[in-house]
Amino acid sequence: MTESKTATTQFCARIVGPLLVVVGAVVLARWNDMQMLIPGILGDGPLAFITGVFTLICGLTLFAGHHHWTTPPAIVISLLAILTIVRGVVLLFAPSFLTGLVHTFLNLGPGALLAGAISLLIGAWLTFVGWFRKPVA
Question: How many domains does the chain have?
Answer without folding.
Answer: 1
